[in-house]
Specification:
This protein has 447 residues and is of the alpha/beta class. It folds into two domains: 149 residues, Aspartate Aminotransferase, domain 1 (Alpha-Beta Complex); 266 residues, Type I PLP-dependent aspartate aminotransferase-like (Major domain) (Aspartate Aminotransferase, domain 2, 3-Layer(aba) Sandwich), CATH 3.40.640.10. 36% of the residues lie in helices and 16% in strands. Helix 3 packs antiparallel against helix 9, helix 4 runs parallel beside helix 9 and helix 11 packs across helix 12. The chain is globular. The two termini are 37 Å apart. Pyridoxal-5'-phosphate binds next to helix 5.
Length: 447
């Protein structure tokens, strides 16, 4: 692929893109959100080419998936080698070594010290697994589950019932899975408890759970699981205060409740650690992972403490989970990230990116808050710094103008730009993309 990027040769969507979009609208159910009319033909590293020959810099990694870069060489080689050997043989019914090797590899990077793995095909399926494992572990004697407002856990019934980031994701689908209670997430920039500092916001959420949920609504002995994203993704790239997860861990331990970390978006190196919750040295009982795990091949996993991964034979399974080709890709991703010291790179560069946007805030009045870890960075846009009214239309305008200039950046929450390039992006490309996004934010701030 050519290296000159970005390069716009025809205003997107070009003629070929328009033709494909028209057919897509006729043939494919249009229930997706879809950000802008990008029709992808080819991608390599952090560069994407559309069907009309436009070249873009990818600042969303195909939705936080290709962490090791599009068509990472090592991953492609591993896939090819595996395809020549074994493509499928249902792990539900039989055995193969790739599954065992993959589990050893996954556990080696997991914060769960003594664990077991259950393979899935997607993030939502990992979440379904977490729900069943937790309720099953207590033999359904603890029917309640606590999740957080602003959370996104997926679209299947269990995952959707835990999700609370946009009403449209749940509207029209009731009755949802019963027994799920939502509580506020500590969102320091917009703390629902009007706390003065991030730590006070964290304390207020823990206090609310103790005093109002356990004190007035549900006895904690009936709660099996608390599930949280270490950094809320779709909800707006929201980083909780440092005291939150350690205190949540203490609270769940006190009541014998399992704690699950939804690492579907924040996991696999995205935040500069293998799993997001590792930023706070907390060992959860369960982890849900997917997205970046196999760099674009469908794969997910639940990692859980051995003592908890106890669903009986026949009670939970799938046909494709732990596909050997996807596992070969996952093993190559882990090897590659370790060898190239990707986590250290991302932790360091992420700080520089945050500084760039924080400095830019003095010239671009739309920037209300900059937050994140590694390459999971949110730039929240507001119309007014005092009222913090979300600058939703402006966010869409910045996203669209950046797209037309050759940078693929998307939103999260109501008005947050998410900066989530492949973890391998060349520094030159990264800064080119940031300059384009930055100058576009300034342009729209002035208008
Ligand atoms: C935190 C989180 N959990 C779960 C999911 C659902 O994953 P999938 O789309 O693979 O079902 C997502 C997807 O964006 C996610 O960000």
């Amino acid at each position: 692929m050519p290296v000159e990027a970005p390069k716009i040769v025809v205003e997107p969507p070009g003629p070929k893109a328009r033709e494909i979009i028209e057919k897509d609208e006729q043939l494919i159910m249009q229930s997706f959100s879809r950000w802008y009319p990008l029709v992808v033909e080819e991608a390599q590293g952090a560069i994407v080419r559309d069907v009309d020959g436009n070249i873009y810099i990818d600042m969303n990694s195909g939705l936080a998936v290709v962490n090791a870069g599009h068509r990472n060489k090592q991953v492609v080689e591993a896939i090819k080698k595996q395809v020549e050997k074994l493509i499928h043989y249902s792990l539900t019914d039989f055995y193969y070594e790739e599954a065992v090797r993959g589990a050893e590899n996954l556990l080696s990077i997991s914060p769960i010290k003594e664990g077991k793995v259950f393979y899935t095909n997607s993030g939502a399926e990992s979440i379904e697994g977490v729900l069943k494992i937790a309720r099953g572990y207590f033999n359904n004697s603890r029917p309640y589950v606590i999740a957080f407002l602003g959370a996104f856990h997926g679209r299947t019934y269990g995952a959707m019932s835990l999700t609370a980031s946009k009403p449209v994701q749940r509207k029209g689908f009731s009755p949802l899975v019963p027994g799920i209670i939502h509580v506020p997430y500590p969102y320091p920039y917009r703390c629902p408890f009007k706390a003065e500092t991030p730590e006070e916001c964290g304390d207020a959420v823990i206090g609310f759970m103790e005093e109002w949920i356990f004190g007035k609504m549900v006895d904690p002995s009936e709660v099996s699981l608390v599930i949280a994203e270490p950094i809320q993704g779709e909800g707006g790239y929201i980083v909780p205060p440092d005291n939150f997860f350690p205190k949540l861990r203490k609270l769940t331990e006190k009541h014998g409740i399992l704690l699950a970390s939804d690492e579907v978006q924040a996991g696999f190196g995205r935040t500069g650690k293998w799993f997001g919750i590792m930023h706070w040295n907390v060992e959860p009982d369960l982890i849900a992972t997917a997205k970046g795990i196999a760099n674009g091949l469908p794969l997910g996993a639940v990692i859980g403490k051995k003592s908890i991964m106890t669903l009986p034979r026949g009670s939970h399974a799938n046909t494709f989970g732990g596909n050997p080709v996807s596992l070969a890709a996952m093993n190559a991703v882990i090897d590659f990230m370790k060898k190239e010291r990707i986590l250290e790179r991302v932790e360091k560069l992420g700080e520089e990116v945050k500084k760039y946007f924080k400095d830019l805030a003095s010239e671009a009045k739309l920037i209300g808050d900059v937050r994140g870890k590694g390459f999971m960075i949110g730039v929240e846009l507001v119309k007014d710094h005092d009222t913090k009214k979300p600058a939703k239309e402006e966010m869409v305008e910045i996203m669209m103008r950046s797209f037309k200039k050759g940078v693929l950046v998307i939103g999260a929450g109501v008005s947050t730009l998410r900066i989530a390039p492949p973890l391998t992006i060349e520094e030159e490309l990264l800064w080119k993309a940031l300059e384009i996004i930055g100058s576009t934010i300034k342009e729209v701030s002035r208008s």
